[in-house]
Design brief:
The protein is mainly alpha-helical. The protein has helices spanning 3-16, 23-45.
Length: 70
């Protein structure tokens, strides 16, 4: 996706979401989306076997010394 496409998306989506973005703010949001897209593409390239998929349920471990309630 090219930068102008990302900017066009931001400019089209903002009013739909009720956001008023001036040109400078829209460009900053588009730049952020571009960086996020680049990171996502890097992650998509990482080979993951089915057994390496994240767990369906996350349960944080208790803090050390804290009593866990049942």
């Amino acid at each position: 996706m090219k930068e102008q496409h990302i900017l066009a998306y931001v400019q089209a989506a903002a009013p739909t979401l009720g956001l008023e973005l001036d040109a400078q703010r829209a460009a900053a949001v588009a730049q952020h989306f571009g960086r996020t897209l680049a990171m996502a593409r890097l992650l998509e390239q990482a080979p993951l076997a089915p057994e390496l998929e994240p767990a369906e349920i996350y349960r944080a471990a208790p803090f050390p010394g804290a009593q866990e309630s049942a």
